[in-house]
C-alpha cells in the first residue's frame, strides 16, 4: 500500500503521486496475496470437508456452532438451521471450490478477476445473512480494487466548500470522541459507534456495507471503462 498512490488524494499531508505502472504492480501483488490467503484456507477445508460421507459437514459445524453455542440467531440464521443436511454438505464443496479458485480467475483475465471479487462479496454477504459473521475487515481489501477516481473528484469538490469542510471536521471529531470514550470505558467495538454487545446493530450496518460493496464491485467489473489491473504479475 505504501506504493499504491492511495495517500496522494484526500489526505491532510498528501503523499507523492506514483505512476500508474507502480499502482498496477501494487494491485497485482495484493491480488496474488489475496489468492494465496484464500487458497490456504480452502486447501485446509478440502482436506477435511471433501469426502463422500454425507453424515458429516464442515458447513454444518459452522451453522450449528454459531446458532446454538455462540447464539448468532439473527437475520436468516433460522432458515439455514432448518435446511436438509445434504444441502449443507453440498455447500462444503462449493465453499472449497470458491476458496481455492481465485488464482485461476486472476490469471485468466481482468474481467474474470472482477467476477471473482464479485462472487467473494456475495459469499461474505450470504455468510453475514445466514451465519451472522460480518467479515467487515475484509471490505477494505476488496475496496482496493475499485476505481474511486470519480468519487475522489466529487468529494474534493465538496470539501472545497467551507460548509462541507466544517461538517467533515465535526463528524470526525464525533467519531474520535466516541472511540476515546469507549476506550476509557473498556468497551470493545468493531464499529466506531456500536459496542460489540449490540450484535444485531453491527450486522445491520455490515449488511448495508456489503450490499454497497457488491454494487461497487459489479459496476467496476462490468461497467467501468477503467479495467482492474492484474497484468503486472
As a percent range, the share of helical residues equals 55-70%
Poorly predicted runs of 5 or more residues: 229-233
What overall form do the CA principal axes indicate? globular
State Rg.
20 Å
- Count up the helices: 10
How would you explain this protein's 3D organization?
The chain has 233 residues and is mainly alpha-helical. The protein has 10 helices and no strands. It has helices at residues 20-49, 58-68, 77-81, 85-100, 102-108, 110-131, 139-143, 149-159, 162-184, 199-222. Helix 1 packs antiparallel against helix 4, helix 5 runs antiparallel to helix 6 and helix 6 runs antiparallel to helix 10. The two termini are 16 Å apart. The relative contact order is 0.13.
What would a concise description of this structure say?
By secondary structure, the chain is mainly α. The protein has helices spanning 20-49, 58-68, 77-81, 85-100, 102-108, 110-131, 139-143, 149-159, 162-184, 199-222.
